[in-house]
Design a protein that fits this description.
The chain is an alpha/beta fold and about 230 residues long. It has eight helices and eight strands; from the N terminus they run βαβαααβαβαβββαβα. The chain has a domain of about 160 residues: P-loop containing nucleotide triphosphate hydrolases (Rossmann fold, 3-Layer(aba) Sandwich). Helices cover about 45% and strands about 15% of the residues. Strand 5 and strand 6 form a beta hairpin. It binds adenosine monophosphate.
Length: about 230
């Protein structure tokens, strides 16, 4: 079994989470979403959750040390379970300091190959999508819908998940001020992250994130040369 690590880079709302879910379902990969880990801490009202609540809601990045702690804990848990196979890092690393830390962390695992994947989407499309995004509140489902009337991703029943029947919720940080902060932070760090992977000789695969999810998935599979399912 290979031990590839796919790093999903891209602005908020570019479909990193949905593409991750598709890869989990079709290919049996595992998803590590640092955003989900953060939201889980908040929901469980842990000490970390209390510390990061304000940052998440206002769209600001939280500290590298907290994020790295969560990533290390997740990796240790998976190792203890003996789990193997490809892993998607969804939303991590988000800054070049995190990319350095990840590189050091993985240096000891010689069998792991990193694939940075960049989902490309314009700011206008990000804002349009996020202002109408709703998500299934069931943690094991988390399907994403659009509340735009003309969207093909509207739920059949208002604010109810088509897949599992749970209520849909809007994320606190999917409001205008937080969206702008998240985009600002994305642009602040994006180029240095791309430069980092260029310097370490890791080609970045680009995907057109404006396309429907099926097409984005097919583009990913074709570009990394992986069997479709
Ligand atoms: P996401 O679900 O990936 O959109 O992340 C939601 C929020 O979690 C972000 O706006 C940050 O506040 C926080 N977060 C997630 N991943 C990171 C990371 N790698 N570094 C810093 N903050 C993060």
């Amino acid at each position: 079994m290979n031990r590839d690590i796919f790093i999903f880079l891209g602005p908020p709302g570019s479909g990193k989470g949905s593409l991750s879910q598709r890869c989990v379902e079709k290919l049996g990969w595992q998803q590590l979403s640092t955003g989900n880990l953060c939201r889980d801490h908040i929901a469980r009202e842990t000490e970390i959750g209390t510390q990061i609540d304000f940052f998440i809601k206002s769209g600001k990045l939280i500290s590298d040390s907290l994020i790295l702690g969560m990533v290390q804990e997740w990796l240790a848990e998976k190792a203890a379970q003996g789990s193997q196979g490809s892993v998607i890092f969804d939303g991590f690393p988000r800054a070049v300091s995190q990319a350095h830390a990840l590189h050091e962390l993985l240096a000891e695992f010689k069998d792991m190959q990193l694939y940075p994947i960049r989902l490309v989407l314009s700011d206008e499309e990000v804002i349009y999508r996020l202002l109408a995004r709703s998500i299934c509140q069931n943690n094991s489902c988390q399907r994403v819908y659009s509340l735009h009337k003309q969207s093909a991703h509207q739920p059949a029943q208002e604010m109810i998940c088509d897949e599992c029947g749970s209520p849909l919720v809007r994320r606190f940080d999917d409001e205008e001020t937080a969206i702008h902060e998240r985009l600002r932070s994305h642009h602040e760090h994006e180029q240095s992250l791309l430069d980092f992977y260029h310097e370490v000789g890791q080609p970045v695969v680009e995907l057109n994130a404006r396309a429907p999810l099926n097409e984005v998935y097919n583009e990913l599979i074709t570009k990394i040369g992986h069997p479709r399912e």
